[in-house]
Amino acid sequence: MRKLDLRVIGFINSFENMTHAKVKDAFFDRNETLVFVVEEGEMGKAIGKNGSNIKNVSFRMKKRVKAIEYNNDPATFVKNAIHPVRAESIELQDNTIVITVSSTESKAILLGRGKQNLAELNSTVKRYFEQLDVKIA
After folding, report:
1. In terms of DSSP H, where are the helices of 30-132?
2. Which of 34, 35, 38, 114 is 20–30 Å from 70 (CA)?
3. How far apart are the C-alpha atoms of 89 and 86, rounded to whole Å?
4. Does 1 have pLDDT greater than 80?
5. Radius of gyration (Cα) for the chain, nearest Å?
6. Per-residue pLDDT at 25
7. For residue 32, which of 1, 3, 7, 69 has the smallest C-alpha distance?
8. Burial readout 81-118 (b: 16 or more C-beta within 10 A, e: otherwise)
9. What is the dotted CATH code of the domain comprising 6-69?
10. pLDDT digits (tens, 9 = 90+) for 4-22
11. What pLDDT, on a 0 to 100 scale, did the predictor assign at position 137?
């Protein structure tokens, strides 16, 4: 179990009160974006109609906010984490999750400048699936 500081617990409480979605975890990524990992099936509540809930949360907290739906299956979790980028396939091979994308645009988005987006995705995945690495094919 990860330890949460008081500030993050406050953000979780506010997020749950505003969206009525159950939060599994929350953390700040490298870009100081507040990432909420919501329970399975709670993503619709978290986002709201036309993104109204997530926009409202972001405005009130004065932070960039991202929501990811948790899933016990690592491939499905990665699919949720990289949304809205569409991958051709996400496969678990040994201890590596291989993401296959067809367009160079999608690959560029997933990698990021200096592979920072890939590193961020890797650290997010390692929070829940410690033994796994993420690679882009």
Report:
1. 43-47, 52-61, 74-82, 104-111, 116-128
2. 114
3. 9
4. no
5. 15
6. 93
7. 7
8. bbeebebeebeeeeeebbbebeeeebbeebbeeeeebb
9. 3.30.300.20
10. 789 999 999 999 999 999 9
11. 86
Task: Pull the structure tokens for residue 66.
Answer: 């991202």
- Classify residue 107 as left (phi > 0), alpha (psi -120 to 50) or beta: alpha
Structure tokens at 31: 């870009």
> What's the whole-number mean pLDDT along residues 77-93?
93
Joined tokens for residue 87: 């991958």
Question: What are the extents of the domains in the chain?
Answer: 6-69, 85-136
The pLDDT of residue 30 is 86
Q: In terms of C-beta distances under 8 Å and separation of at least 24 residues, what long-range contacts does 15-19 make, across chains too? A: 15/46, 15/57, 15/65, 18/53, 18/56, 18/57, 18/60, 19/45, 19/46, 19/48, 19/53, 19/54, 19/57
Instruction: Retrieve residue 108's tokens.
Output: 């560029």
Q: How far is 89 from 100, CA to CA, in rounded Å?
A: 5
